[in-house]
């Protein structure tokens, strides 16, 4: 019986995956609550797609480790997308659609340039079991940084999500904080995309928060519930993937989706 | 606190254009503390655009100056703003407390509440008949409740300039009357410049000290009586009849 529940612990890659989830799901939950509040699900999705271009740029530049290129490109991409989003010349969904498809097209062109596309297919579906010790260290640094950012800036992020005009009238630097937020989302999405995959990264980002919204009484319980849902989906999904030999990322997303629909029913019955 | 009448907001030659589209052109206005200045005009006349320019939300040419008792520019102008609506949907978990606390304190609202902040906000909401709304979600407030909460938020702490963008719809008559009563009370009690974009011409006629009628540019300006008697007013509001009413 113990082996059924804890047998996975004997494998190093499973232990690494466990710690990765322990670090990344809280990150996603924190960012996801604000992504959902701001209606930025597709914005994050476009960011995920831009990772293809980031990899492509890295390949063209001949970089053996293309992750820094991905992160830098994603931050630039996010800031540019944000600038045009606020220009009022186009509707937001059009801007996001344009950027998203450009990101994919550019990335595919760069990647297929030397016929090496198949090497990068793991970006599409990801593999959380491939997490290394060094990557865990990076995550262990990023999580407290984002948590600190949340302690310092959350009230202002919250005010902006309610009304940018109201926040601006109180002297809150709306555009600066908005750019800071999308840059942080860009960095976290890029760091996680290898383990989660760009096809489902948005789902992992927004589902715990979206489910938490159904049952939260206020912002405090919203964050705490999203955190709990994120961790529960992560651990349960990982265990499920080990137990029935399915991909971990989709299993986590599926658990989150079940939580989303279950909480939806709970809310409707209230 | 009585109004000193010496603080002044000077809006000079404000023009807002997005691309080739000029939204408002060369607007000038002076508003004094202790006075209610109303901006009126038809839909699409640029009223909200002018407010956003005053708030610095929209890029514009011209200047917005706030001067103190001695005529010198006042430092650290504190603005209270009541927006037309909020960017929250019915499913948003943000409560009235969350909104107000996130604007008045840096202590994160996701940590346990501090009794001092709760007391401070409750006492202020009480002045606006809204203390019972503290834990209500923003997306579940009625139009009238939301306006009272936004007015309470805008005046916490007391601003130098109160800017109100009145909602076009969604508030019942009783809710609107209560909202107006609170504005008139604020005007008499607090020392601040009040600028109101209003669609309620009767309220403006009876309560505004200064009226600005705009249609992209300034059509008429002055006392309510003067503006309501102007040819521009009759042109902009051909169906309004105030001939039998007294200010």
Question: Mind explaining what this structure looks like?
Answer:
The complex is a heterodimer of chains A (270) and B (247). Chain A has a domain at 15-199: ABC transporter involved in vitamin B12 uptake, BtuC, CATH 1.10.3470. In chain A, 80% of the residues lie in helices and 0% in strands. Chain A has helices spanning 2-6, 12-37, 41-60, 67-85, 92-112, 122-125, 133-162, 164-169, 174-196, 201-215, 219-244, 248-269. In chain A, helix 3 runs parallel beside helix 5 and helix 3 runs antiparallel to helix 10. Chain B folds into two domains: 1-78 and 158-247, 3-Layer(aba) Sandwich (Rossmann fold), CATH 3.40.50; 87-157, no CATH class. Helices cover 31% and strands 25% of the residues of chain B. Chain B is built from eight helices and nine strands. The chains are: A mainly alpha (270), B alpha/beta (247).
CATH T-level topology of one domain in chain A? ABC transporter involved in vitamin B12 uptake, BtuC
Determine the strand fraction of chain B and express it as a percent band: 15-25%
User: If classified by CATH, what would the architecture of one domain in chain A be?
Assistant: Orthogonal Bundle
Shape of chain B: globular
Q: If helices are DSSP runs of H or I spanning 4 or more residues, what is the number of helices of chain B?
A: 8
Q: Percentage of helical residues of chain A?
A: over 70%
Give the N-to-C terminal Cα separation of chain A: 38 Å
- What summary fits the major beta sheet of chain B? 6 strands, mixed
Oligomer state equals: heterodimer
What's the total helix number of chain A? 12
**Residue share in helix of chain B:** 25-40%
CATH topology of the largest domain in chain B: Rossmann fold
Q: What would CATH call the homologous superfamily of the largest domain in chain B?
A: P-loop containing nucleotide triphosphate hydrolases
